[in-house]
Design a protein that fits this description.
Blueprint (H helix, E strand, L loop, with lengths): L1 E6 L1 H4 L1 E2 L6 E2 L6 H9 L2 E6 L18 E5 L2 H5 L4 H13 L8 E5 L12 H21 L2 E4 L16 H15 L1
Parallel strand pairs: 1-4, 1-5, 5-6, 6-7
Antiparallel strand pairs: 2-3
Helix pairs in contact: 2-6, 4-5
């Protein structure tokens, strides 16, 4: 299977522990764990700081599965959950792949930390996850809620720890069965 993972820093595998922020080793990134466990050909198109794009890039037509997890950066930049969900709908609507080949993952809720100073952001991230579920149902695409996978987050309240990546990979593998 050919899989593309399109997301932000948690897809990229950003390691928030270093001053300049590095990247976790491959054996600690959920995308690479998924590739190892399944034998699939997986492209990691995660990018630090990525907000929901206004238009979808050209994904290869032979993509068997497109995994999309976005929205946290939109909330961190001050968008409401509703605004982020509207952006996400426009983005997903522009993807020319068959809807059965798209898996939308709602990011796990953020927690209080260096990047998350208020309970409002936590509430917004939970609301966004609910809106993602509704959007996926309306659009007829697959959906998973990473908030159900007990993902440990780093001191910043946003990024997965190494254990968080492993928990995410385990949750996703279960979802894909």
């Amino acid at each position: 299977m050919t899989v593309i993972c399109f997301g932000d820093s948690n897809t990229y595998g950003y390691d928030p522990r270093g001053y300049f922020g590095g990247r976790y080793d491959a054996d600690s990134r959920w995308v690479d764990i998924l590739a190892t466990e399944t034998g699939w050909i997986i492209s990691n198109i995660g990018q630090n700081g990525r907000e929901i794009p206004s238009a979808a890039p050209a994904f290869p037509a032979d993509t068997d599965l497109l995994i999309v997890m976005l929205g946290t950066n939109d909330l961190l930049q001050g968008r409401s959950p509703e605004q982020a969900a509207e952006r996400l709908e426009r983005f997903l609507s522009g993807i020319p792949l068959d809807r059965s080949k798209i898996l939308l993952i709602a990011p796990p809720p953020v927690t209080l930390g260096a990047w998350v100073p208020s309970a409002k952001l936590i509430d917004d991230s939970r609301t966004f996850a609910r809106l993602c579920r509704v959007l996926a149902e309306r659009m007829g695409i697959r959906f998973a809620d990473a908030g159900k996978w007990d993902i440990p987050l780093a001191y910043d309240g946003v990024h997965f720890t190494e254990q968080g990546h492993k928990a995410f990979a385990a949750g996703l593998l279960e979802e894909l069965k």
